[in-house]
Design goal:
341 residues, alpha+beta, 4-stranded mixed β-sheet, 3-stranded antiparallel β-sheet, 37% strand
Length: 341
């Protein structure tokens, strides 16, 4: 090879290096939070949880790289998804069958490999550089179909024996050892509605740990007998309580602020005089459910407030809400006090 040819090849090689460096220098990195969830197409026979087995979705921190224009577009879409609950979010769906995870056991998922195989990733047009965590434990349970009796209960869990249910049984997928019923839980407003005309609800079964709920595909028709004439009362709740799961860590980590507390200063309901007096003596007049997964949300969706009516009067149809209320809550981290000295 002549010296001239060598020089030409050297110039070409250096030019290619310069262009490659220039291209790479234009790329941007962006960290984004996404979630891994069970695919809706997986089938009702699969109960899947992630990590410690307490959650049906798992947050992952992903670092992507790509051209500035593409990164800016993805960043805009990501921010829009945070602000708009109807906007598509960064979700990667796990299908047990695709990985051969079709028996009851715990599997290990390579997060980066899983994300790279996802259609959502291919549509992004970016390169995945890193993930936290790198691996994720996936707990798969294969459930058994059973024909379950349906039990109607109120918000406190007390049965409503006067409820007429059609049909009285539904088929659901449950753990092999499960021997209980499927439940239909009615709020005070729903109980009032069912006394006037039938309503429809889908029964559910809750599994341990708390928060794992399966809902039947079939609806049941619910009707309740009419009751005596009730008086309407405006009422100013004196105390609002919170409902946590049995092993919740929220109370020790967060203070709960109700951002629209002014909307809850007056409520209206109908009741007999005895029911009104019993409700007035309750420790908490209103209850708000706070879920463990709320701590991972950027913004907690408005949550329906539970009227803490005395259950015996609810069952008898002697008290019912005339309108619903929602609460907007925010979890504020509790900062540990610095030690003296």
């Amino acid at each position: 090879m002549s010296d001239k040819t060598k020089k030409i090849l050297g110039v070409i090689f250096l030019t290619a290096l310069i262009w490659a460096w220039a291209y790479l220098s234009l790329e941007r990195q962006i960290p984004l939070w996404g979630t891994i969830e069970l695919s809706p197409a997986a089938g009702p026979e699969f109960l899947v949880t992630f990590g410690d087995g307490a959650s049906t979705s798992f947050p992952v921190k992903l670092t992507f790289k790509g051209p500035p224009a593409k990164v800016s577009e993805i960043e805009r879409q990501y921010r829009a998804a945070i602000m708009d609950p109807l906007h598509d979010k960064l979700v990667y769906y796990y299908m047990p069958q695709e990985f051969g995870h079709t028996t009851t056991q715990t599997y290990t998922l390579d997060v980066m490999e899983f994300i790279r195989q996802s259609p959502a990733y291919r549509e992004m047009g970016l390169t995945l550089e890193a993930s936290e965590p790198m691996r994720l434990e996936v707990n798969v349970e294969v459930l058994t179909p059973r024909l379950l009796d349906v039990t109607c209960i109120d918000e406190s869990g007390a049965p409503l024996p006067a409820a007429e249910l059609q049909p009285g049984q539904v088929e659901m997928y449950v753990r092999p050892e499960y021997a209980g019923p499927a439940y239909v839980r009615l709020s005070g407003q729903q109980i009032a509605a069912a006394r006037h005309s039938p309503i429809h609800q889908r029964p559910f079964v809750d599994f341990e740990p708390p928060g794992l709920r399966r809902t039947a595909a079939q609806e049941v028709r619910i009707s309740l007998p009419a009751t005596e004439q009730l008086n309407e009362y405006p009422f100013q709740p004196q105390s609002i309580g919170f409902i946590f799961s049995r092993n919740s860590t929220i109370p020790g980590r967060y203070r709960i602020d109700i951002e629209n507390e002014s909307d809850l200063r007056t409520i209206h309901f109908r009741a007999t005089e005895a029911a009104f007096e019993a409700y007035r003596r309750r420790r908490h007049h209103l209850l708000i459910e706070v879920r463990e997964e709320d701590a991972a949300l950027e913004e907690i969706p408005p949550r329906e407030v539970i009227f803490n009516f005395p259950p015996e009067f609810v069952r008898n149809g002697h008290i019912e809400a005339t309108s619903s209320r929602t609460a907007v809550i925010r979890l504020v981290p509790i900062t540990a006090a610095a030690p003296d000295g």
